[in-house]
Design brief:
With 400 residues, the chain is an alpha+beta fold. It has 2 domains: 258 residues, Ribonuclease T2-like (Ribonuclease Rh, Chain A, Alpha-Beta Complex); 111 residues. It is built from 8 helices and 20 strands. Strands 19-17-18-14-13-12-11-8-20 form a 9-stranded antiparallel sheet, with no helix packed on it. Strands 1, 2, 4, 5 and 6 form a 5-stranded antiparallel sheet that branches. Helix 7 packs across helix 8. The longest helix has 15 residues. Its main location: cytoplasm. It comes from Trametes pubescens (White-rot fungus). GO terms for molecular function: hydrolase activity; ribonuclease T2 activity; RNA binding. Keywords: Cytoplasm, Disulfide bond, Glycoprotein, Hydrolase, Lyase, Nuclease, Signal, Vacuole.
């Protein structure tokens, strides 16, 4: 397994030089903010359920998520790209958008003003939005996920820290961690490279990744092609400067056991590091892919059920006034007032309504959906159109 020391060495050492940032430069970049926390105590999810400036909770199950986008291709052709770093709760549930007062804008300006221009340059190549809206994407990742870290509360920062310093530290740490996880290189070292004709088994892919890192990540697929990887961690100390402890993924992801495609990117440059593809959120035109979030908690899984587990990727075809949607399980449709997605489902035409900065899913012109109960943990609830059931909510489409 990755030793904690190996992670630290990778974060600060010579591996970063291959990405254009020396260990010395990175140390200079980070010496501005120190948590003062020990890293010798318990890792997150292995101690108190209460968060503090030195113990990450309740979101102590960290996912460093990367994408491999090929339609359209984003990032270098020999690298996956950054999606984000998400603080899931230790039971697999999660919270989002934890502090709207810190929904910072102009992330590029914030990074530049606080001496993190090297981080910004890296993000502009490896943390890019599939539709080119990088700034919106970065703002979304910070406001949705970054504001939920207990160790990044403004009260945890050193006295005199500039406004937004915790967001700058968040982006720096995500970039540092990503640089230790060159997924493309891990697979390539085992003879697994993108191909228009070859297919792979899930066991072959995960064995290669475990051989390189000592842990097994989760792989997600879209139409039989791998397009997402989730590397899991706990953290000792603060996210500002703590030790990331790699762990096995708690679930295997959505990929089938065999026949998996790893298609090549087109039109991209090559690089000496790793990367993949990305998402964003908000209102506007209909995205080609995205997740569907409930207004109260959680969102939709691949079968169209409501859950607080990791959300499924949905594919949208059409315009906001009339579109169909699918998941890896098949078409999505409404029958008898119930939303489902699957191989035998007849596709229903949906629409989307812009409201309060969100793009709301609508069925037969109504944005109201309801269920018999609110999901928690591994439970899933059936989604009904209208508000006749006890738990009512709206569903927003977030581009990915």
């Amino acid at each position: 397994m990755f030793a904690a020391a190996a992670i630290l060495a990778a974060l600060a050492g010579s591996a970063l030089a291959t990405n254009g940032t020396s260990g010395a430069d990175l140390n200079n970049l980070f010496k501005r903010i120190s948590s003062g926390c020990s890293t010798s105590g318990a890792a997150s999810c292995h101690g108190s359920s209460s968060g503090s400036c030195c113990f990450e909770a309740p979101g102590g199950l960290l996912l460093q998520t990367q994408f491999w986008d090929t339609s359209p291709s984003t990032g270098p052709s020999n690298s996956w790209t950054i999606h984000g770093l998400w603080p899931d709760n230790c039971d697999g549930t999660f919270t989002e958008n934890c502090d709207p007062s810190r929904d910072y804008t102009d992330i590029a300006g914030l990074l530049t003003a606080q001496g993190a221009s090297d981080t910004l340059s890296f993000m502009q190549e490896f943390w890019v939005d599939i539709n080119g809206a990088n700034e919106k994407f970065w703002e979304h990742e910070w406001s949705t996920h970054g504001t939920c870290y207990s160790t990044l509360e403004t009260s945890c920062l050193p006295s005199g820290s500039p406004k937004g310093a915790e967001a700058v530290a968040f982006f720096q740490q995500v970039v540092k961690l990503f640089k230790t996880l060159p997924t493309y290189d891990f697979l390539s070292a085992a003879g697994i490279t993108p191909s228009t004709s070859k297919t792979f088994t899930l066991a072959t892919l995960t064995a290669a990744l475990k051989a390189a890192t000592g842990v097994t990540p989760a792989l997600n697929c879209d139409s039989g092609a791998i397009n997402e990887i989730e590397w899991y961690f706990n953290v000792k100390g603060s996210l500002l400067d703590g030790v990331f402890v790699p762990i096995d993924a708690p679930s295997k992801g959505s990929c089938a056991s065999s026949g998996l495609k790893y298609p090549p990117k087109t039109g991209g440059t090559t690089t000496t590091t790793s990367g993949g593809s990305t998402p964003t959120g908000g209102s506007g035109g209909l995205p080609s892919t995205g997740t569907i979030h409930a207004s109260t908690t959680g969102g939709l899984l691949t079968g169209g059920t409501w859950s607080t587990q990791t959300l499924a990727t949905y594919h949208f075809s059409g315009t906001t006034s009339s579109f169909t949607m699918t998941t890896s399980k098949g078409n999505c449709g409404v029958s008898g007032g119930t939303l489902t997605c699957g191989s035998g489902v007849s596709a229903t035409t949906f629409s989307a309504v812009s409201s309060g900065g969100s793009l709301l899913l609508a069925s037969s012109g109504s944005t109201a959906f309801s269920s018999d109960a609110t999901p928690s943990g591994s439970t899933q609830e059936t989604v009904f159109t209208g508000s006749s059931h006890s738990k009512s909510y709206t569903l927003s489409i977030v581009s990915s």
